[in-house]
Amino acid sequence: MANTEHLENLKKGKKYWNNWISEKWRNQNLNYWIDRGISNYLPATRADLSNTDLTGFHDLTGYDFYKVNFKNSNLKGVNFKGCKFRKSDLSNCNLQNTTFDHSDLEYAFLLNSDLGNSSFQYCQMEGVNLSATNLYKTNFCGSKLLKSWLNWARMIETNFKLCDLSFSRIYGASIWSVELEGAKQNDIIITKPDDSIISIDNIELAQFIYLILNNSKVKNVIDTLTSKVVLILGRFKPNRKRVLEQIKSELRTRGFIPMIFDFEKPQSRDYIEPVITISQLSKFIIADFTEPKIVLEEVPIILSACVVPMVPIISNKESIPTTLLNNRIKYNSLTDTIVYSDPINYKQITDYIIKKAENKLMEITNKRENDSL
To answer: Can you list the positions of beta strands (E) in 157-280?
Structure first.
């Protein structure tokens, strides 16, 4: 529990606290003590505010918390803007929706704390330990995170814009949809603390590179993708879902892994990039041109980016678009169009799609081999 005297001094306001903490420990040298667990070092703290609910202190702007112990405390929603937390212990704390903007957190220890939706903009955070933290939508914009510890951290939609993440450690981290515009990412260390150092200059590639380096089965995974994945493109409105689901089911029975991309209501132009990436990893593509406007717009972009067989299908209630015919002349990977009608024989149409795709793949492979001679 927190030291009662220390907690009472905090209640007396910023001026009293800052004077008290600087005078009391002015001449005391408190070094880090070594821990052989998750971090190499843990701070030896001064004032003790641990195991306490401090949510009643709504605004603690500008306080000096250098080497203060907050371990296991609830600090949710408190405003710590412009505070000094250098070498403080903030481990196992609830720091959700908390503001630390323009604060000094160099070598602070935040192991296993929840920083979800908190703001650490333009902070000094060199050497900070953020291992095993929840960083969901945490905002670090403009902060200096050199040599920080992010091992086992959960970085989901985290904002690292304009940050310096150089020489940070991220072994075991989960990294999804992070923002990195303008960030420095030199020599990010992806290996365990006690292993030989392997570094990379892109935090988003870290998980993939580590997987390649340490998993002997990665080649099999990649081979599985390129030999079994089938990408299905179209606009799948409710009345058309049954066609999609039946074709998916038939593909599964034949050992394929169907992946679907629905072009309905795209939020931005960025959506085409992951489609291209998946297309490049696919064995072949099925494109449904029933109600085809947006599909027609995107298919040429996909065809120009990768040489993967694409099988167009369309309901007999629709006319084959002229644009599709023109694309077939321009792009060799596009097969003839399969026209289907109700009632659909899904087993037959799936066999027909696979046959066309495999014939086109053989044609593409033979052409590539002949061109290399």
So the answer is: 174-176, 188-189, 199-200, 229-234, 257-262
